From TrEMBL:
The keyword Endoplasmic reticulum does not apply. One of its GO terms (molecular function) is hydrolase activity. This is Cation/calcium exchanger 4. SUPFAM superfamilies: Calcium-dependent phosphotriesterase. It is found in: Vacuole.
Amino acid sequence: MALIKHCWVLLLVLVIAFALQIIFFSPISPDILELPSATSSVSVPPSNNRLQKVIKLGEGLLQAPEDVAVDEKGTLYTATRDGWVRRLHRNGSWEDWIKLESSTLLGIATAKRGGLIVCDCEKGLLKFTDDGVTVLASHVHGSEIRYADDVIEASDGSLYFSVATTKFRFHDTHLDLLEAKPHGQLLKYDPSTEETSILLDGLYFANGVALSKDEAFLLVCETWRFRCLKHWLKGESKGKTEIFIENLPGGPDNINLAPDGSFWIALLQVVTEGTEFVHTSRALKLIISNFPKASELVLGGIKKKATVINVAADGSSIRKRFDDPNGTVISFVTSAVEFEDHLYLGSLNADFVGKLPLK
Ligand SMILES: [Ca+2]
Ligand SMILES: [Ca+2]
């Protein structure tokens, strides 16, 4: 009897030790993820397979081109996982333009006086020109900028850019989702003073940024909140922030202004179908975060489909929706840029840039 009792005590001690290990050594301190409401005021068009019609540009040459930008001459730029920024000239030829030792180049934007602004998760905000690479911003208020995600240039030369999370690195993105806390920021780089300041703090994975056609407001997407915020830069609401669109049918990644003033947003399947329960249990999150394969477990569904939407200039409606519902041709689309009646699509799970005719 004494032996059985000892065994039970030992088992209890082991269970307590295991639980303490999980709680104290977990890399996260999780909150519950707020999922989009089923009773949204914005109606969502039905899923379709329009994205399966994409033409593949630069197939095999481009490793996971997250973002795409087109300059005034019609040259298309993209940054890939091997550190290359490549460009496609109007004559159809690809050029290996500039290479950087980095696997974490994300959002890009063309600069009006030439060159390309590039976000790097490790180095910060960079400028690429024919002469090479310059670091524009590596710190804000004394802290390293670690997860610069997307950028846009205003006509006065100011650069607005997002920091997805100040807590986790690129390869630990799944931990930021599991933690579900607002570690994101929206920053501004002023070229006249070369200083960087914090415009907004406490964002749920700050991702795509875009300016309205008249530059009266700035949009920033919060991927883990299924919404995009509007921050006024001009007019009587200047300095105020409000919701632009919410309850999106996916986590918004990059956002781009369309020629007609509307916006293209790439939506990510951040909550894998059938695993919603993971995001509502703190205990489960603590356990999962300890596993080496946690990323696959949590974000595996992101590579299984692609969705792009077009949202009205005032955020009041979703006007168009294109999908590849099972990722047959393209998946994990992170960016959609409209240029001369075509959409150009970036993806973190493709070896090409997708081109979709809009007419
Ligand atoms: Ca961009
Ligand atoms: Ca992004």
